[in-house]
Design a protein that fits this description.
Radius of gyration: 26 Å
Strand content: 15-25%
Largest sheet: 8 strands, parallel
Distance between the termini: 37 Å
Structural class: alpha/beta
Helix content: 25-40%
Strand order of the largest sheet: 7-6-5-4-3-2-1-8
Shape: elongated
Length: 479
């Protein structure tokens, strides 16, 4: 049976709460009465078109209700008497006055907003012995490995929902069946929740099964990664029973351990893990060995294999457009990891390269390593191709530009930033008549290569590109 999607709705008035309830397209709606000024339990339930969970969360359990405890319990009692499908009550609350009614199921909940406690298993077993219909256990994931603890300690023969709160715990919300959960919560009421449409359409929660294959993007931070949108769209297009989720961590050892425990089959590796996983994976491609970094992992024969598709992804827009790089004067802005990728790629194609960075000593160090020139800052005019590898101009600082517009004086500009799709630098280049290439081309190019290595199927590039664009448009609308 697939997991359900619950939308948590909050409001300050009953009118707002009812409107939010009626807009919901989720399987169930959690009505959070604790923030409502004019609470009317009957009004909250009347006219509902889908099952509801009535919650009036106490302030001492992270909610908004800070009034008299008996008043709060009376609200829950009234919901039971009026036949709410579910009523959520805290494990720590004195529940003796609440009636039991055959048409209402009790969700016994426990939240830890500080950590994943060491005695979690004891707490879960104690909750299971109290006769509730459903257990809800929500803990804070300080580390990705806390998700393993949560899954293992809630593996009981009792209906439950297990949630790891925080960025490191998103897999618990996106792949609820991996935690044995009856449902997952969506909406905007709590940090880490995904919109209901995203749970349904991007992560396909309703289509997931216990044996659905898992893939992931790993690194930190990941909140604005378009990779889940792209890869999940590709899986759906080709009818592959798989889901791709974020695994947020900066620890390579932790990543590999957790990925193995959850049976993850493939990983897109991003900052700051590319060199860390390189040191822990022995089956590497030649380019990964040369660069000392891997951006893709695949589980093969109980071991990890690694590849570096950064360079191929960087070159993909040139290859698609038939643009020859040999002999061009190219300037690379920046001296970090992305600059290294650009230098490898440009040298491989016979371009003349110089490195330009605000910190000339870093540019000089990188230029010496690759045997190229150190350029001025800002670059002197006359270049054929300018590549921005700095983060300047990334969302949300979309008006920032790495060099002044008057210094954008050349034929072609390639900005590796993909969010926004057209950066301030690219807009300036367009105004000055230069050909422009956005970072989305590189992102989609390397994603296609990853997908094909994992699945042995041609990647649906247009589907992945469209999914990435939708994701970026949605994120910009949320600003």
């Amino acid at each position: 049976m697939p997991a359900l999607i619950v939308e948590t709705v909050t409001a300050s008035t009953m009118a707002e709460l009812r409107a939010a309830r009626d807009r919901s397209t989720a399987d169930l709606v959690e009505l959070r009465l604790d923030g409502v000024r004019d609470v009317d339990v009957g009004g909250a339930l009347d006219g509902r078109s889908r099952p509801v969970i009535v919650t009036c969360r106490a302030a001492w359990e992270g909610g908004a209700f800070d009034g008299d405890e008996q008043t709060r319990l009376d609200i829950l009692r009234r919901a039971i008497e009026l036949g709410a499908e579910y009523v959520d009550v805290e494990w720590r609350a004195d529940r003796r006055s609440l009636p039991r009614r055959s048409g209402t199921k009790i969700v016994l909940s426990h939240h830890d907003f500080t950590c994943t406690p060491g005695d979690l298993g004891d707490r879960v077993r104690a909750m299971a012995g109290e006769g509730a219909d459903v257990l809800k256990i929500a803990v804070t994931a300080r580390r990705l490995s806390d998700c393993v603890t949560l899954r293992d300690e809630t593996a009981i023969d009792h209906p439950h929902v297990a949630i790891a709160m925080g960025p490191a715990g998103r897999i618990s919300r996106l792949v609820p069946l991996a935690f044995g959960s009856l449902w997952t919560y969506g909406g905007t009421a709590a940090p880490g929740q995904s919109p209901v449409d995203e749970l349904r359409e991007t992560f396909c929660v309703h289509a997931q099964r216990p044996d659905t294959r898992l893939y992931a993007v790993a690194g930190a931070p990941l909140a604005h990664s378009a990779s889940p949108a792209m890869h999940n769209a590709a899986f759906a297009e080709l009818g592959i029973d798989a889901v791709y989720v974020p695994l947020e961590t900066a620890d390579a050892d932790e990543l590999l351990t957790v990925a193995e425990r959850f049976g993850v089959e493939g990983i897109s590796v991003t900052a700051p893990l590319k060199t860390g996983v390189f040191a822990r994976v022995t089956d590497r491609d030649a380019l990964g060995t040369r660069t000392g970094a891997l951006n893709t992992l695949k589980r093969e024969h109980d071991a990890w294999a690694g590849r570096n598709y950064d360079v191929a992804g960087f070159l993909s827009p040139f290859d698609r457009e038939g643009i020859a790089l040999a002999g061009l004067r190219c300037v690379v802005l920046g001296a970090g990891g992305a600059a290294r990728t650009a230098l490898f790629a440009l040298q491989e194609r016979g371009a003349g390269v110089e490195v330009s960075a605000r910190r000339r000593e870093r540019a000089a160090q990188l230029a010496k390593e690759f045997g190229v020139q150190v350029g001025e800052w800002p670059p002197r005019p006359g270049w054929d191709l300018l590549i921005n590898t700095t983060p300047v101009g990334t969302w949300p600082d979309v008006e920032a530009i790495p060099i002044a517009e008057q210094a954008v004086a050349g034929a072609m500009v390639y900005d590796l930033i993909y969010n926004p799709e057209e950066t301030a630098l690219l807009k300036a280049a367009r105004r000055r008549g230069a050909r422009i290439i956005g970072g989305l081309e590189m992102l989609v190019g390397q994603a296609c290569l990853q997908f094909e290595w994992w699945t042995d199927r041609p990647a649906p590039r247009d589907v992945m590109l469209a999914a990435a664009r939708r994701f970026l448009t949605q994120r910009q609308a949320e600003r």
